[in-house]
């Protein structure tokens, strides 16, 4: 599974209070040049990525995901911690070449 330390359900989503915003970290940084290129190659929906700013935003299934150069991840529209862990695992698998050791 993913290398997350802890996943926090920060607060309910504004548009749907039954869904949450999860915050966590992969525990390692990302090469944002590789991450942006990978997301572009995968043609993920609603992708915006800036290697210079060190942030990417995209849609993955029903989740809205934001990843940061330092390994932080925010996931909107999760139902619970297990749902957030599943999203993190999918993102980690998608971007495995972009993680720094």
Helix/strand layout:
Elements: E1 8-12, E2 20-25, H1 32-42, E3 48-50, E4 55-60, E5 63-68, E6 72-78, H2 81-94
Antiparallel strand pairs: 1-2, 2-6, 3-4, 4-5, 5-6
Protein architecture, described:
It contains two helices and six strands. Strands 1-2-6-5-4-3 form a six-stranded antiparallel β-sheet, covered by helices on one side. The protein has one domain (8-98): TATA-Binding Protein (2-Layer Sandwich). It has 101 residues and is an alpha+beta fold. A hairpin with a 3-residue loop joins strand 5 (63-68) and strand 6. It is globular and about 35 Å long. The protein starts with 7 loop residues before the first strand and ends in a 7-residue tail after the last helix.
């Amino acid at each position: 599974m993913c290398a997350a330390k802890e996943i926090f359900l920060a607060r309910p989503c504004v548009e749907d209070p039954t869904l949450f915003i999860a915050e966590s970290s992969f525990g390692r940084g990302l090469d944002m040049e590789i991450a942006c290129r990978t997301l572009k190659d995968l043609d993920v929906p609603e992708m915006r990525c800036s290697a210079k700013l060190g942030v990417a935003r995209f849609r993955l299934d029903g989740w809205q995901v934001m990843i940061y150069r330092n390994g932080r991840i925010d996931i909107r529209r999760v139902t619970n911690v297990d749902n957030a862990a599943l999203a993190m695992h999918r993102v980690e698998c998608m971007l495995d070449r972009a993680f720094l050791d």
